[in-house]
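Revision sheet: structure tokens.
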Amino acid sequence: MALKRTPLFESHIKAQGRMVDFGGWELPVQYQGILKEHEMVRTKAGLFDVSHMGEVIIKGEGAQDFIQRLVCNEVKKMADKQVLYSPMCYPTGGVVDDLLIYRYHPQHYLLVVNASNTDKDFAWIMEQAPVGLDIQNVSSQIAQLAVQGPLAQQILQELTDFDLEGIKFFWFEPSVMIGGVDCIMSRTGYTGEDGFELYVPNAQAPALWEKILTAGGERIAPIGLGARDSLRFEAKLPLYGQEMDQDITPLEAGLGFFVKLEGEDFIGRDALIKQKQAGLKRSQAEFRMVERGIPRAHYEVCKDGRPIGFVSSGLMAPTLGSSIGLALIDHQYNAPGETIDIMIRDKPVKAEIGKGIFYKKKTRQGQ
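Predicted:
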């Protein structure tokens, strides 16, 4: 089967992007190199093609009630033009996907879902939906560009008369002209830095891409999937399929803040209440390597020679200069200072569980 391509495929080829198969999409893993691109986003700005992400529009009377039942977070407390992050669960408490909810008004929402889950999510949503709602999968019609980094606002402000300072973190504007292109513009991000997302019709994406790169000059560069993953992980942002999936609940994944068990009813709530009341048997742990080695997803974690879990994500964090990871382990061992072994090429390599070891903007030197 031929790989799918975003409207920006030719733009990536022009920029000499190294293209790879990413969940059935032909996307750039890097341009100038992952470390260089990672540092660019941390210090200046980067431009990402995230057009493979899925978009689902839900409209109609009862839209708010339906989405509230669909996800774990408190949709009914949202204001117009607010963005909300939430897991979406099965009745078992396992995660269908984690997504962003954009509220236009109580009868009009945009859901942004993970690319690899788009078809599955849309099928799940349709299965749960009451009669009468207008639900559309518009993923194939919409391109999404993300501009991330400390200079993101400065660069984009040069392309618009709209005061971007007015768009706060996790809010959006339905119509902002950027370089003459009408965009849905939000301020969320998946890198640990400030940044914006621009949603436009497919045909307008290549011209907007070029305008942003031209305006930014040496302050911005195109960024591939490799640095996108290292940036999100270094900032401890979860990835579906690693930190959570149908067998890992949001409570186990450390996402309890986004699960409002005391609020409205939602699919999976009963199972999650039971899990919390019984006490977690396993939970997400942050760890730093003590001995030399780089932890990778799916590596086994052991304690005193006995398996206690697995690494969900890990790498040598470029900004921090240390090998760090996240692991889902037996809860009894999840305590700061506890030592564990990461099995790297069948050999135990010592690591220590910590807290607050991941990247935060305010901890960056010079800020």
